[in-house]
Amino acid sequence: MNDIISKLGECVEFGKINLASPYPPTMKGLPGADELTREALENGISPQAILNDALIPAMNRVGNKFTEGKIFVPQMLLSAKAMNSAMKHLKPYFQSGEIKRKGVFVIGTVMGDLHDIGKNLTGMMVEGAGWEVIDLGTDVPAEKYIDTLNQHPGAICGMSALLTTTMSNMQPMIASIREKHPDTKVIVGGAPLNATFAQEIGADAYARDPQDNINWLDSIVA
């Protein structure tokens, strides 16, 4: 059984989605994350063990390699897709409560901004790290965050912006959210942002990449 967990972790780390996936070439013709997750469940490995012992460590390795410049966005996206192919088998166990989530993370691209690649990648990575992710999409107004927080009290908010013209929308959005939910923690990210800007607008943290985001989230619940 440990062999299945080990192979599943490798599939996620190196982006082997399923049997038909040609990438990476060294794993061509071998089962991918899709098949191995199903096999793990059929062999009696608990969904929680699959998440904790295979998926989360693999995505942590991916995130660290990205931060260190050893891999780039295309490889990270493949790993995230492999992780998603595994997660689809685990979703029923999340819904039943058999797998415990670390918390709820609400993510969106700020009002006026339609860019979503960074947001999508971060959402997939955070989900793979054991969080429930609610993706609000792009061009998200503060009201949409507030409505979601009404339904999920205590959720943590993430905001993304890729344009200098839309990053200025973050401060009034954070203020509006805190007016209704004063204790809400907010992390921001995106190409034009930095830690100083995040502090100036009242955000709790700035993430330079998805792994940075995960590390901060995990530090809150540690």
TrEMBL record:
Keywords, comma-separated and alphabetical: Cobalt, Metal-binding
PROSITE patterns (UniProt xref): B12_BINDING, B12_BINDING_NTER
Matches recorded under PANTHER family: METHIONINE SYNTHASE (PTHR45833)
SMART domains referenced in this protein's UniProt entry, alphabetically: B12-binding_2
Ranges for domain B12-binding N-terminal: 32-102
Gene Ontology BP terms: homocysteine metabolic process; tetrahydrofolate metabolic process
Domain spans labelled B12-binding: 102-222
A Gene Ontology cellular-component term: cytosol
Gene3D superfamilies named among the record's database cross-references: Cobalamin-binding domain (3.40.50.280), Methionine synthase domain (1.10.1240.10)
Protein name: Methanosarcina family methyltransferase cognate corrinoid protein
GO molecular function: cobalamin binding; metal ion binding; methionine synthase activity
Keyword Cell membrane: no
